[in-house]
Amino acid sequence: MVLSRGTVINGLRGNYKIEKEDLHRGGMGIIHIGRSGNGQVVVVKEPLIKFNKDDAIRLKKLKVEAQILANLDHKNIVKYIDEYESG
Fold first, then answer.
1. What Cα–Cα distance (Å) separates residue 31 from each residue in 18, 23, 59, 60?
2. What is the residue extent of each domain of the chain?
3. Mean pLDDT per segment of 10 residues, for the chain of length 87 residues?
């Protein structure tokens, strides 16, 4: 899935609409700004690497990253909220 302005993402915990695309591009992904269904501003990370559903090792690594982020709680680290799968 290529995320662009107006795209709605159906996460595991809610829906999010992309409001500003390509806020930043890095070596591992693209950062977008979105809004949750309740109006909260959110940051969306879109991996640059496109995964095949058969690519179990890479998908598992992303799941582990999501679990680690979900357990972090620090004022200088973006709070993990949700995840989604595309494709």
1. 10, 5, 19, 21
2. 8-71
3. 87 92 85 92 81 75 87 89 78
